[in-house]
Write the C-alpha cells for this entry.
Amino acid sequence: MTAAVSFKSVSRHFGTVRAVDNVTLDIAEGEFFALLGPSGSGKTTCLRLIAGFEQPTSGRISIFGEDATATPPYRRPVNTVFQDYALFPHLSVEDNVAYGLMIAGQGKAERRRQAGEALELVALSGFGGRKPSELSGGQRQRVALARALVMKPKVLLLDEPLGALDLKLREAMQGELKSLQRQLGITFVFVTHDQGEALSMSDRIAVFNEGRIQQTGSPSEVYDRPETPFVADFVGSSNVLPPEMVRELTGTSAPASLRPEAITLGEGTLSGKVVSLSFLGAATRVEVDTARARLNVLLPKGRPVPAVGDAVMLGWPADALHVMEHAHG
Ligand code: ATP
C-alpha cells in the first residue's frame, strides 16, 4: 500500500545544526503516528517538512506516492494544528473555522454549513458566535482542530496539540482525539515529548534524538523491546545496565534494559543498598545502588517498602532483561 507520508533519507540542516538528519520513515494511511523525542530532537522540523513550510536539504518526501518537493503547502492534502492554536483573536469562532474556506473562495452559505459541521465534530455547536478569548483552553484547542478539519485534509499534523492543557483536560482530550481519528479514518501525525501520551494514543511511534530516528515501532515494541539505551531511558525511564554488568549476568556483552516495575525486592541474585525513596501514590520508587549501576525499582502499593540505607536483594524474571545487541546510540 502507498504510504501516506514517506521520507527517504531526508535531512534538514540549519547552518551547522542537523535538525533532521537522514530520516527514513513511512507513515501508513489511517495511522495515528507519534513523533516522540526531547526538546530540540527535530520533531517539529519533521512536521514542517511534511506541511511544506520547510524544504529538505537533501532526500525526498512523498505524500500518497507523489513527490512533494515542488508542491507548496496549500496544495498538499495536509493541515496543521499548531501548538499555540494560532486563532485570530478578532474573529468569531465560526469565522476562524471558516477562514481557510474563505481563502479558497467558498461562498458564505457553504462556509457556514461546513464550519457548523466541523464545530459539531468537536462538540462545539453553539459556540460559533464567541470570540476565542471567551473560551477555555480546551475549547480553543477544539476550535483549532475544527479549523484544520474543515479543510478535509488526508493527513492532519498536530504539533504538541495538548501541550497547553492541564493534566485532567489533557487526558480527556487524548481520548477524544483518538476517537475523532477513528471516526474520520484520516492519518494523524502528532508531535509530543510526553512518552505516556505517545504510548497511550499511537498506533506507531518514531523516537527521535538529535535529529535521528532511534526506533520506530508500536507502543509495546518501543516500551518492551527498546533498541537503544536512549529509547530505554526516554520511553518509560527504564534502567539501562552497562555491558560489563550484563556480561556478568548473562554472558553477553551489550547494554540491556530492565523495567523498574519488573524488579522485585527480597529474593534475588543481585545485592544493593537503598539510597532513596519517592512516594508516587499508586507506587513507590526505590533507588538502589548495586556494585555496577544505580537501579530504579517501582514497588506497587501494598508491597513492603524498605528504608533508606537497607541492604536488599534484587530479582526479576529472566525475560525482563532485554539485551540491546544492536545498540547504536
Ligand atoms: P521542541 O520539542 O522543543 O519543539 P523539536 O524536537 O520539535 O523540539 P525542532 O524544533 O525540530 O525540535 O528543532 C531541532 C533543532 O533545529 C534545534 O536544535 C533547533 O534549534 C534547530 N532549528 C529549528 N528550526 C531552526 C531554524 N529555523 N533556524 C535554525 N535552527 C533551527
About this structure: DSSP finds nine helices and 17 strands in the chain. The chain has a mean pLDDT of 92. The first strand starts at residue 5 and ends at 14.
